[in-house]
Amino acid sequence: MKLSQNTLRLTVLVTSLLMPPLASSALAQSNHAQDLYQRGLAATCANCHGTDGKGVENGGMPMINTLSSEQMLTQLKAFKSGAREGTIMPQLAKGYSDDQLQTIANLLGKK
Ligand code: HEC
């Protein structure tokens, strides 16, 4: 099929009309991906500290939802640097960049 001049114009028009919504949905998707990534980071803590850091009382693991984000970040960095000793947390904290620890502490810290 040969594209007529009019069909071509129409295609360009329709494409340009569709582009803005497509662009904004791509942005929404990237925000969504960012959100998932951040939640994924914090989800690795749930095994021991419970969903969203809401631990199990007397579950044998420290309750971390009593800490503010700032207090939590301080502890995580102390585990990472070796300033604070522990059984599990020193190894775990070393696996994250400071930015990632900040993200996790922001999500899990007491609101
Ligand atoms: C395998 C179990 C396990 C996982 C997974 C785990 N923790 Fe821990 N967490 C512990 C234990 C055990 C301690 C006590 C310190 C130690 O022995 O390492 C602790 C201590 C802590 C403390 C100090 C609490 C306080 O009262 O000072 C914080 C903060 C913390 N964890 C945050 C996290 C975060 C954030 C994650 C996810 C990145 C995480 N933990 C993942 C087991 C775990």
- Which CATH-level-2 architecture? Orthogonal Bundle
Question: What order do the SSEs take from the amino end to the carboxyl end, as H and E?
Answer: HHHHH
SS-based class: mainly alpha
Global Rg: 23 Å
The count of helical stretches stands at 5
What's the mean pLDDT score?
87
At the fourth level of CATH, the homologous superfamily is Cytochrome c-like domain
Any ligands, ions or cofactors bound here, and which? heme C
Q: How does the overall form come out from the CA principal axes? A: elongated
Number of domains: 1
Number of strands: 0
Query: Termini separation (Å)?
Result: 62 Å
Layout of secondary structure:
Layout (H helix, E strand, L loop, with lengths): L4 H39 L2 H4 L19 H13 L7 H6 L3 H11 L3
Helix pairs in contact: 1-5, 3-5
The site of heme C has 19 residues, from helix 2, helix 3, helix 4 and helix 5.
Detailed description of the structure:
The protein is an all-alpha fold and 111 residues long. It has a single domain, classed as Cytochrome Bc1 Complex, Chain D, domain 2 (Orthogonal Bundle), CATH 1.10.760.10. 66% of the residues lie in helices and 0% in strands. The chain contains five helices and no strands. It has helices at residues 5-43, 46-49, 69-81, 89-94, 98-108. Helix 1 (5-43) packs across helix 5 and helix 3 (69-81) packs antiparallel against helix 5. The mean pLDDT is 87. The structure holds heme C (HEC). Residues 44-45, 47-49, 61-62, 64, 67, 72, 75-76, 86-89, 92, 104, 108 line the site of heme C (HEC). The site of heme C has 19 residues, from helix 2, helix 3, helix 4 and helix 5.
